[in-house]
Amino acid sequence: MVRKDDSDQLAECHGQVPATADGKEHPLKLRRRKKIKVSVIMPARNAEKYIEEAVRSVLEQRGVAYELLIADDASTDGTWRRLGLYRRRPHVRIWRFRNSKRGPGAVRNYLARHAKGAYLAFCDADDKLMPGFLCQTAKRLAKDRKIGAVYTDRWVKERSGQLRRFSRNAGPADTWDLLGGPLSNPGLVVRRTLFLKLGGYRKEIPYMEDCEFFWRLGEVTRFAHLTKPLYWYRRHRNSLTERYKRKARSARKALLREVIMRRHKLRISW
User: What is the pLDDT of residues 84-97, one digit of tens each?
Assistant: First the structure.
């Protein structure tokens, strides 16, 4: 099905589930009827090289009802063609922004508004979820309504090919303000109601928009930390993190000044 929104052309592809040979409902259709608990949000921009691996890592999750929402943000490579392999999957929905690049923050906001799950899990198109990520994070959120978000440790594959474990021991589980160590999207799941209440990511921020959001989130809720490395993060020269590393540092300082001013009414000169 192809439709238009107010500002851009996009295509939405719904999964189509066939019947079995004897005419009975296909078991995948029965599975689809379960109430969706987690919506996985995946923006994609020129991710042809990695996106199939990212999608498969979500489809291999077990133990929780989920959906996968993907948006191709005006890619100029073969990303949209690769996504064609998954358009008939029953719990995958795919959009394509054809005319202009929106940016990862705006795309995540768009997908979050279309999500059906109680929780939003963020997975970049060049990363992947480890087995058990969705199930274990969803269980932790269901266990305590006072927890608004849960984050995990992660594996990091460096540009050199080295794989190392990244532990997030110090952070929002210990201090509410996050000023010493803001979170980023990889390995984090948040309640959808909170995300929408806060307005999601600020579209005018080109860098560090996820850290800025989690600074705001830390002012209204508590976080939980799972010490298992359940997210696989990839560093490569074409990633946004690597391309805009210097700009991100200056953006972080500006945002940090803004946060301190908002919370403590203090003006910082650096």
Answer: 999 999 999 999 99
Say which amino acid occupies 21.
Answer: A
Closest CA to 190 of 161, 243, 157, 147: 147
CA–CA separation, 126 and 103 (whole Å) = 15
Pull the structure tokens for residue 133: 């990520």
Confidence of residue 206 (pLDDT cuts 50, 70, 90): confident
Q: Beta 119-122 vs 188-191: how paired, if at all?
A: antiparallel
Residue 3 CA to residue 11 CA, distance in Å, equals 6
Architecture of domain 2-264: Alpha-Beta Complex (3.90)
- Other CB atoms within a 10 A radius of the CB of residue 227 amount to 11
CB 149 within 8 A of CB 217: yes
User: In terms of C-beta distances under 8 Å and separation of at least 24 residues, what long-range contacts does 193-200 make, across chains too?
Assistant: 193/118, 194/148, 194/149, 194/220, 194/221, 195/112, 195/120, 196/112, 196/113, 200/105, 200/108, 200/109, 200/112
Q: Among candidates 130, 162, 129, which has minimal Cα distance to 42?
A: 129
The helix (H) or strand (E) run that includes residue 190 is: strand 188-191
Q: Are 113 and 107 in contact, with CB atoms under 8 Å apart? A: no
